[in-house]
Amino acid sequence: MKKIALLPGDGIGPEITKEAVLLMEEVGAVIGETFQFQEGAIGGGAVDRYSTPLPEETIRLCQHSDAILMGAVGGPKWDRLPGHLRPETGLLGIRKVLNVFANLRPVHLFPSLSSSSPLKEERVKGLDLMIVRELTGGIYFGQPKERRTVEGKEVAVDTLTYTEDEIERILHVAFKLARKRKKEVLSVDKANVLESSRLWREKAEQVALAYPDVTLTHMLVDSAAMQLVLKPNTFDVIVTENMFGDILSDLGGALAGSLGMLPSASLSENGPSLYEPVHGSAPDIAGKGIANPVAMFLTVSMMMELSFGFTEVSRWINQAVEEALDEGYRTKDLTVGDEKWVGTEEMGRVIREKFRTLAKGERNG
Ligand code: NAD
Asked: Is 80 exceeded by the pLDDT of residue 365?
């Protein structure tokens, strides 16, 4: 039995989480596994009910689960609250409590969606990269982080710190992933200017010695940003520190056609991992039944592979999504011009049906 904590959150979070649960029930039925679901409050809904965006009970639930699936948090209703009550504080809090240091964001453009990308089709054809972002170190967490007054003028300070251990552990994640892909790691830094990047580059060279079958190259972050727009389909595994990863992953995400297509996984060293779609709570479409459930389905696919080792389940889910798209099924966010579209539930139903057919076909065949 696998215990899964569900944190649906706000906006479209509950709608897409419901679809994900139906998919996991389907997975369980096909492979003979039981998934036990328990729901926890997080974000704005938790503020309304418990006066905190991350109740203790939710933390305990997550710590005692095998994996955590989150929808999204936030919305205009809670935008004016002070920092400690903001829904996003709950999200940062749970990442910190679980110590999920490795954020994996695959960016894959399904062939039938190449006209939905903002770039020309020939540029994005075959786009399939993986951004490995360090999530718990760097300038977002370094101390001191403060305002000072120096000679009567206000000064703001943020600190970019990395220890060699923090750098090495994220690099190992990237190299191991590369072994399952094209055996190429691109380490992105700013070693021409930053001392932390020079340490990063040295450690990357050292860690690479343990993976002689994987090729390591380096790129400065400014150049990487440019190349991601010019030649996105030449990238494979990109590993980088927290802030560079934050920026590059949104850039990469924009190439995939819609935010509603992008999954993510945040892994810890030995505790449960946290899975969530990249997009937010989309308050503009919440409750309308038109949210795209695909990012959530691909997020479930990552959970099946990375937390449970169900590699074939993951492959079937990805293939089911691809078949549905190839047959022309689109949610509204994926349409170009006056293309026809289906709602969240219908898209979910079609993909689950394809999953069932694929899984049963392979298991019986
Ligand atoms: P958003 O990702 O919620 O929405 C951006 C645009 O993409 C909107 O037009 C939305 O309708 C569309 N979109 C997003 N996901 C979609 C899906 N699955 N199907 C169809 N369309 C989809 O970003 P935003 O509007 O900047 O933020 C809204 C709220 O979400 C804010 O409160 C923000 O702080 C929060 N947020 C939360 C997370 C998270 O929980 N991980 C991430 C980003 C933003």
From this structure: no
Confirm if 103 and 63 have CB atoms less than 8 A apart.
no
- Is there a shared CATH topology between the 1-104+262-365 domain and the 118-255 domain? yes
How far apart, in whole angstroms, are the C-alpha atoms of residue 174 and residue 178?
Answer: 6
For ligand 1, atom 12: residue with the closest CA: 282
Stronger pLDDT, 120 or 42, i.e. the higher one: 42
Using the mean position of ligand 1's atoms as its centre, give its distance from the Cα of residue 36 in Å: 28
Q: What is the pLDDT of residues 88-147, one digit of tens each?
A: 999 989 998 999 999 999 999 999 998 888 888 888 999 999 999 999 899 988 999 999
Domain 1-104+262-365: give its CATH superfamily.
Isopropylmalate Dehydrogenase (3.40.718.10)
Q: What is the DSSP string of 113-131?
A: GGGGSSS-HHHHTT-EEEE
Ligand 1, atom 37, lies closest to the CA of: 280
Would you please indicate which residues are annotated as catalytic (active-site) residues?
Answer: 140, 190, 222, 246, 250
Closest CA to 292 of 248, 257, 267, 242: 257
Closest CA to ligand 1's atom 26: 280
- Alpha-carbon gap, residue 331 to 289, rounded angstroms: 10
- Work out the pLDDT band at 209, boundaries 50, 70, 90: very high
Q: Considering the entire predicted model, what is its pTM?
A: 0.93
CA distance 106 to 263: 7
Q: Is 71 in the pocket of ligand 1 (CB under 6 A)?
A: no
Domain ranges of the chain: 1-104+262-365, 118-255
Q: Is the CB of 90 within 6 Å of ligand 1? A: no
pLDDT value of position 118? 85
102 vs 169: CA distance, rounded Å: 9
pLDDT bin (cut points 50, 70, 90) of residue 60 is very high
CATH 3.30.70.330 fits 118-255, yes or no: no
Instruction: Report the alpha-carbon distance of residue 350 to residue 229 in Å, rounded.
Output: 33
Q: Answer yes or no: is the C-beta of 73 below 6 A from any ligand 1 atom.
A: yes
Helix locations, the chain, DSSP H: 13-31, 44-50, 56-63, 87-98, 121-124, 164-179, 195-208, 221-230, 242-254, 294-306, 311-326, 344-364
